[in-house]
């Protein structure tokens, strides 16, 4: 495999983040908006997707598909980040400005993933 180091970094970050969904599910369930009726299932699916897409990034034939999957996942989880910004209970006591910056980090992550879609 001859992939750029930053693709390996991205894969590693998504795999670790996905595993964390299973290691500390309460942390993620807390930020899932109430509109989602089964937060445990949402947490499990999003964690599994992060792990699967992270692994698929490591293989040249599937890395572009995984990058599109990550973009879709980042868009799908944006409501959780917005809920975290709007709801004090879901904010983990973080300052509003950090939560606001976190919303823009999602855009950067989408751009980063987009670099590997072709």
What is the secondary structure topology, with strand pairs?
Elements: H1 5-23, H2 25-29, H3 39-57, H4 60-86, H5 96-114
Helix pairs in contact: 1-3, 3-4, 4-5
Please give the radius of gyration in angstroms.
Answer: 15 Å
- The helix content is over 70%
Number of helices: 5
Percent strand equals under 5%
Q: What is the overall shape?
A: globular
| Main beta-sheet annotation | none
Low-confidence stretches: none
Q: What is the H/E string?
A: HHHHH
| Whole-number mean pLDDT | 96
From the N-terminal CA to the C-terminal CA, the straight-line distance is: 17 Å
Say how many strands there are.
Answer: 0
Number of domains: 1
Structural class: mainly alpha
Protein name: DoxX family protein
Organism: Flavobacterium pectinovorum
Keywords: Membrane, Transmembrane, Transmembrane helix
Structure in words:
The chain is mainly alpha-helical. It has one domain (5-114). It is 75% helix and 0% strand. The chain is built from five helices and no strands. It has helices spanning 5-23, 25-29, 39-57, 60-86, 96-114. Helix 1 (5-23) runs antiparallel to helix 3, helix 3 packs antiparallel against helix 4 (60-86) and helix 4 (60-86) packs antiparallel against helix 5 (96-114). The longest helix has 27 residues, at 60-86. The chain is globular and about 45 Å long. The relative contact order is 0.15. The mean pLDDT is 96.
């Amino acid at each position: 495999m001859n992939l750029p180091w930053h693709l390996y970094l991205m894969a590693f970050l998504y795999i670790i983040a996905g595993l964390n969904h299973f290691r500390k599910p309460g942390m993620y369930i807390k930020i899932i908006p109430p509109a989602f009726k089964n937060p445990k299932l949402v947490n499990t699916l999003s964690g599994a997707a992060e792990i699967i897409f992270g692994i698929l990034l490591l293989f040249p034939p599937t890395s572009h598909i995984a990058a599109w999957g990550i973009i879709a996942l980042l868009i799908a989880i944006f409501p959780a980040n917005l809920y975290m910004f709007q709801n004090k209970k879901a904010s983990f006591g973080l300052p509003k400005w950090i939560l606001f910056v976190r919303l823009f980090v999602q855009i950067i992550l989408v751009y980063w993933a987009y670099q590997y879609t072709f």
